Structure formats: C-alpha cells, structure tokens
Amino acid sequence: MADDYRRQGFELERRIFDLDVKCSSLKAEKPDDDYLQNAASIIEKLHSYFRHGGESSTLSKLLQDYTQVILDITFFEENRLVDLEFPEECSPAKIQQLLQDLTEPEVLAGRLAPGQEVQSVLGLELLECLYWRRGALLYMYCHTLHQRKQWIKKNKETFLKCIQEGVRYLMRMLQVRNSVKLSDGVVLHDTATANFLSEGVFSDTHLLTMMYIGEMCFWAVKYEDCSADSTERKEDRLQFRDIGTQILHKYNLRLLRQRYFSSGSVSETEEQHDALSGFLERLPVDLQFLILTYLSPADLCLLGGTCHYWRGMVRDPLLWRFLLLRDIPFWKSIDHLSMPQLELLDAPLVDSEESLEDRVEGVDNDSKVDYMSEYLRGSPSCRQQWLPTSAPYKVVTSFFQSLVASAEPRYAMFGPGMEQLEVSFVTKLMNSPDLLPVSVSGTSHRKMHGIGSGITYLFDNQHKFNILTLYSTNRAERERARMQQQNVDNKLFTVELNAGSEVPTFSPTPHVQQVCQAVDGFIYVANAERADGSENEPAQVRALLSSAWGSTSRPLLVLSCVSREEPPTPHRVPCIHMAKRLELAALENPWMVQDVAADSLSGLLDGLSWILSPAFARIWPDSCSAGTPGSADWSVSAPESLRSASIMIKAILIFNNHGKPRLSKFYEHYSEDTEQQIIRETFHLVSKRDENVCNFLEGGMLIGGSDYKLIYRHYATLYFVFCVDSSESELGILDLIQVFVETLDKCFENVCELDLIFHVDKVHNILAEMVMGGMVLETNMNEIITQVDAQNKMEKSEAGIAGAPARAVSAVKNMNLPEMPRNINIGDISIKVPNLPSFK
C-alpha cells in the first residue's frame, strides 16, 4: 500500500511539475490573466503539499486540484485559438493536444484509483466540465470551419469527423448525471424547476449543450449526404439527423413551453399557451397553405399583420408564385405599370447552381424574386393602391383646364379584331347609344384622304372623342378572309425585306402616316379567339407607334376582343398573354390591354376611361379608378389604412456616412450586383449634397432616373433614403421617415448605428409594420409600437429561453466547484460564442 501511494504521488508530482513549467511560460506572455494566476496558486498549493508530505486519503482532492489546473491552462489556450480564429496551419495539432490534456484527468483517475468510479473521484461537476470543454472546443472549431467553404470541399471527411467527436463529447456530458425523478422524495416548490431537473437539465450549460448538438447535427446532415466516399464504417457513424431531432425536440417542446422557470404551474402555463394559440396555428403547414390560397390579397395582407408567424407565412414566395400562375389567366386588364415579369415565373425559387454548402446561415437565403410585390402590382383587385396620387397643384391645374374649350381627342383604331370576329365590333360600337352614344354636334375635324373624318362618340355623356377606323383592306376581302379564317394582305403598310434577312420591315402608307401624325392615341382591337395570332402583329403595332410620326407619350389601348361574353369563349387568350404576344413591354408608349366582348361591349368603358384620362384630366382619378377592374371590391374589403395608402415606394436604404449599408429593402426585383450599385450610386448622390439644400432630388439612372426621386434625412451618422414615385409628396415622405426614426428610437431607447447592425431582424419587423410591398400600411407610431411589442411578447412566450446562450456560458469554466466562487456571470468568460441559427 505504501509503495502504491509513493508511486501515485511520484507520478502526480511529476505531472504537476510539467504543468508548472507550462503555466510559467504562458504567464510570461500574459502575466495578468486571471485563469493562469488561479492555476499558479493551485500549483503552489500542491507543491507545498508534496514538500510537507500528505496522506493517501487526499488522492481525490489532489486529482480535483490537478484537474482544475488543467481546466485553467487549457481555457487560456482555447481563448487564444478562438481569438486567432483557428489558424489553418497549427489548429489541428493544437486542438489534438488540448483534447489529450482534457482527457488526461479522467485517464489518470482511472489508473491511480482503479477501485473507484471516475465520477466519484473527480466529482460529477468536474467530469461534466471536462466533457463540455472538449465538445465546446470542437464546436468552436467546426463553427469557424463552416465559414470556410473551400476548405470543407477539400477536407469534408475531417470536418465530419470533428463534428462526430464533438457531438459524442457533448452527449457524454448530458449523460454524466441521471435525471431527478420527482417521485423519489424530491420536494420542489417551483414546478418549472422540477420539470427541468426531471429532463436532466441542471444548469444553463446543459441548455447550451443541447443547442450545440443540434447545430452540429445540422451541419453534419448538410454535408453528410454529399460524402458518399466515407471510409468510416457505417455502424460507427452517428445518426446525426436522429440525434439532432431528438435533442432539439426535447429542447423546444419540453423546455420552451415552460416559459423559462415561470412561477405558475405547468398545467396553467399550457392552458394559457393553448388559449393564446389560434386554431390555425395548430394545423399542419401544408393545410395552412391550402387555406391561404382561398383568401383574397387584401385578406392575406391583413392576416400578415396579426403576428410574426403569419407575416412570414403570407410572404412565402411559393404562395405568391402559385397565386400568380393561378390568377393571371383570369385578370381582365393589365397595363405598362402593372405588367408582372413573366420570365420570373419560370425562374427556380432556389438557384440550381447554388448548393447547400454555399448557402450562408444567418443570412436571408429566400428567393430574390418578390412575387408578392409582383402580384399586388399586377392584380386588378389591388392595382389601384399602386397608382400615384395626384399632386395638389395638378387638381387646380385640371380645374382651370376644364374651363378652357379644347379640341376633341382623336384616336386611330385598327387591328384584326375588327375584321375576323363573328360579331362585328365596329357595328356594335356604332349601334349602342345607351352605352356610347354617337355625337352629331362634335367639333368639325379635317377629312383625311382615304380615311374620312371619323366618328365622334360621347363618353360619360360629357366627354367627346373621335375615332378614325383603319381597315386593312376592302370589305369583300375582309369577309372572304374571315370565312376562310385566313390573314389578309394588310394594305395599311408597305413591306420591305432587308438584305440578308427574311424579317420584313413594315412602314405605314402615306395616308396612314398622316393619320398617325394627327391622332392623340391608338386603339388596337386584337383577336383573342386565336391563340397564335399573326407573327407580324408586333411589328405592325411598332410601325404605327413609331416616334417618327409623333410623341411616344401617346397611349395605346389594346382591346383583347372575343365575339360573345356568354357562353365564355374556350381557350380565350388572357390579356397578359396578349401583352406578351404583341411585345408591348418593349414599347416606349404607355399601354393597356383590356378584355372586351363584342356582343355586349363589356370592358370597353374601362379601357376608354384609361385612354381618355390624359385628354380629360377631370376623369382621373374618379372615372379611371372606376375603370380599373376590381378597384371597388378592393376598397370595400380593405381596411382604412389600405384604402388610404397609395404611396409607391421602390426602395428604402439606410447607410452611414461612409456608405456602409445598414439596411436595404427593395420592393422591385434587381440582381444582387445591381442592388449594390444602386446603393453606391444613391450614397454618391446624397452624401455630396450641402446641408442647406432641400432633402430630395432626382433618382439615379439605375433606379429609374427622373421617374423617381430620392427623399432623405440625415441623422448623425446615418442617412435614411426613400426612393419613391416622382409624383409623391416630398413632405409626406419626410414625415414618414421621421415616424420611422422616432419609432426606432422608442423601441431601442436612443437608437444608434449599432442597433441597426445587431438587431436587423427587429428593424425589418418595424419597417414591415409601416410598409408592405411598397405600400404604406401604418403611419401611427403608437400603433406600430403596439404591434411590435405584441410580436416581441409572442416571440418570448414561444421561445422563453432564446437568451439562454448569453447566460449559459456562466458555467463554461466553473460549474459549482468546491471552494470556487459561484456568482460567475458572462463577463467572466472570454470565450466567443457565435450566434446560433435554429435547427430545422
């Protein structure tokens, strides 16, 4: 026994001497480090013990002190590695050495005290700390490696092996102590604490351990499927998906619902949670999406304003892409302002060239296409909300203009829809006095050779306008072509074939050129019963609207016409497809496509109100809004805040005095590179302006030039810039910026630039309460703050321990050790704990 004691003492003394040398060398680098000083004091106490001799009964205490020295020294070395962000050259060897050092106390205890269990020699808390430190070290290393995508591609097996070892150490840490059974004579007045203990959660570190395991399993699942050439035996590998699901299921469902040590009973807490949760939230996600597809756009916007969860649901790009594909064929009208980008419907939601390995966690990886904005801008039911409001001075100008007699506006009407349909559109138009009476007292127009003077109609019983009808050929040829369903040789144009090209070039004949120079706009009657149409249609439309014959500001109304409204024409070409067929998006002129039936002329007045609005300013916005299909339905179903909102915001940018963006929100699709160029261009335009000049200017070329303007405010180190339609009120937008800033100031208590950096999610939530899809929803600061506070309370109730990582590091080093202070807070721990995205 004496020999065994001397052998144990000699081996332990030799190891303590080695630690003394190592600690002295590290103290030379940083003499004032608290952990190294603590280690040195324990080593000195152990040296004194061996100099004066000791009893064998103190072996357990010696091993605990020895373990504490190793924890102190390795903690200093780990911090140094974290500060250097794990250099690639030396990190693998250094981490291997640290793992061996942290394993040594457990091995030494088993060898020096073979008759006792290791946990009885070292103590439960020290043994847990040894496993925790090894697992946390590997987690920190893997977290750093996870940002090095190129390194992982070359060393995927090494990365997965580190994850596997880290998960094993952390799992062992959770298994050191058994769960407390509440039926074993344990009496706790705090029921929530009792439930934590029954789940095996004894400290904040146990919570953080489960979060680390979940995140490491998530990384492993991402890369494991791509690593089919693994040399490790399948039975030796961990089932990361099962482990991660099990741990995080326990973490979320069993712990978060307790509201983090709430004083109420578990049953009361669950009853309150169930009372707060709506019926819809408990439905499966796929069923929730099915229900959302039956709601109107206005109802979806209202639902998105109820809570953070539904805001995310109603903004899902897959939902709005489905709604676009489903509803586009049924839209009755579309124009140059509301035309959605059809090519985006064929674009994948996730870039096919972007692998899971390239997607950065913590960064918004959603679709770059804002399908919601595309739908809201294009749908007739809510299109009116996107129309810019008229400036106050324009109302006065329109009034004075109405007092001055002006010539009747004149329009040229042409197209195959006048000639190919079974029901004659022109004949029905001339014989509908109850809908559009013919005026016999109109202003005398000059008669044009081969065309005539046209017919004057009375719109809304007060507005006269003249239509010149241009037929492609004589009546006999038109009728023969209609019966044989053939295209006629259009005599309105002369055709030239370019040398070396089979594409014809169309030019209006001289008398048609004369018409094009005299009219104020064009009406094209398209045949919506033919799915293909003539391949020459786009070229012929461009030829008549050419800038050589007049201004490009003259409007084009396309009447997408069928013969009969009832029964509905099968395979009718939707108006949006008609716009694509005629290539209207390439025109410089304003245009609109309106569905019309020749037998009833349904939809005609809606189209006429649009094309007449520039000529008769008094029609706009009353008549024109009435002429926007579905606008009346929207105004009834939408709340007051939506009915009054018509501001069209293209982008909201916040950057500092050096041009560093702190928030960017675009309500129109741009590529990522273009967005960065817009930010740089906007900063260049705004930052060079003198403080004594006004706070608005014309937009940059990349964002729309003179059609948009930049309205901004400069607060200390930050610029708040709104890019809005050129017709918007500057003072109104400046007030909106002020409301936004004051709301931020109240929510963050003296907001500064750092708040926008570290709480970007909360800033986006505040902004979303004010603006959605480019439309202003709310300007009352109290209402905005109330909604934000309600969201925060709901998030806290659903994730009561979301702040656990900030508190959990309190047990990284000292876990209720004997003779050690227990009031350790986060300030005592210098190890860097990164933000953890949730495991999904």
UniProtKB/TrEMBL annotation:
Domain of life the protein comes from: Eukaryota
Any Gene Ontology biological process: mitophagy
Pfam families on file: Clat_adaptor_s, F-box-like, RIMC1
Domain F-box: 277-323
Keywords, in A-Z order: Cytoplasmic vesicle, Golgi apparatus, Membrane, Protein transport, Transport
Claim: Transport is one of the keywords in the record: yes
Coiled-coil regions listed: none
SMART domains according to UniProt: FBOX
Entry's Gene Ontology cellular component terms: AP-3 adaptor complex; cytoplasmic vesicle membrane; Golgi apparatus
Protein family according to the UniProt entry: Belongs to the adaptor complexes small subunit family.
Protein name from the UniProt record: F-box domain-containing protein
Organism of derivation: Knipowitschia caucasica (Caucasian dwarf goby)
The organism's taxonomic lineage, starting at the top: Eukaryota, Metazoa, Chordata, Craniata, Vertebrata
